[in-house]
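ASSEMBLY PREDICTION REQUEST
Request ID: AP-0331
Submitted by: J.K., bench scientist
Number of chains: two
Total residues: 442
Priority: normal
Notes: Please return the full assembly, not individual chains.
Input sequences:
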Amino acid sequence: MAGDALTSGEYIKHHLTNLTFGQHPDGSWGIAHSAAEAKEMGFWAIHVDTMFWSIGLGVLFLYFFSKAAKTATQGVPGGLQNFVEWLVEFIDTSVRGSFSARNSLVAPLALTIFVWIFLQNLMDLVPVDVIPELAKLLGIHYMKVVPSTDPNATFGMAIGVFLLVLFYSIKIKGVGGFAGELTLQPFSSNNPVVNLLFIPINFILEFVSLIAKPISLALRLFGNMYAGEMIFILIAIMYNAGLILGLFGGVLQLGWAIFHILIITLQAFIFMTLTIVYLDMAHNEH
Amino acid sequence: MNINLTLIGQLLSFAVFVWFTMKYVWTPIMGALETRKKEIADGLAAAERGQHEQELAKERAKDVLHEAKAQAAEIVAQAQKRAAEIVDESKDTARVEGDRILTAAQSEIEQEANRAREQLREKVGMLAVAGAEKILKKEISADAHQDIVAALAKEI
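STATUS: Completed
Returned structure:
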């Protein structure tokens, strides 16, 4: 349903606008009624839909997994527990494969990232109009159901990972060691004066590669999911363009959704693996 | 697509989720997996031990059976020997007893014959005395001439 009164452009824009709660320019607090209003709210606004869906999915994940964990000690495992244990062992193997130091935080972190991102991405497979139309019946006019198409969500996680990388870099190597890593390589010389000259060059190079970690982490996930969502929206527009194009759109949607199953799993896995690798690098001198 | 407070909210909820996973999901599940792995290993080891013990017991049972068979054979042999001995002994005893009975019977028969002979001799004596009496027409009394009769009887 591309909406009767909406043009294609408006339809797309509508689908890409978050349900934003914040302070209007006139000082009152409330829900933004248009994309422009949402933009005017500036930083001190919150995307209610992103928060709702991501926290809801996170709670769902933790509910089932802690339920399985609670019954884990009682002998023969059942269906849910088998699945959870299989996933836990898969993550554990991945972590053991690429993380060489000992840190009890990394494996649970990897599990959380993988399952949470997977569930967020999974919302992409719900046909684009189903939940927004239901929300419209409840009087909510903007509803973006895939949290990972919101850069706030992906950057939130990436910054969390980045803070851990900084924390462990400094904890393991000390402030001096970490600073040395940023300034004394890749260029170095036996001559102290030349070495001193290399410091700013090294710092620029290393700082960029350090900053690139969270940014690439966040943008890769966001970009993939945003693009996927956009294609679903474009396919949905075809339903309004006559019977033949509509049928063609149905086939396309099915094909893209099947292909997307691969993408959502892959993106969750990549985010998890890169997190493990970055933390491994933070633990090792190199 | 605005960057706003949602970023902080996501960061915080991410931190809480990771903490929760670490405390209530990962640790208990890994603990359970470790425990189960250990239990299975123990079970397998116990099974192997049991099998080994069973084999040993089988061998032992075979030995015991062999020994018992040997003992049984020995006992049977002894019993047969003893039985033969007993049969021999009783044969001997029987023979001796038979001999003894035979001898006793023979001596008794001899005694009887002697006694009969004695009686016969007396009777003949008396008969002779009676004949003599008849001949002497009662002049000689049987009481008075008893010694003569006895002498006669002896001579017969």
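REVIEWER COMMENTS: The CA atoms of residues 30 and 268 of chain A lie 34 Å apart.
SIGN-OFF: pending second reviewer
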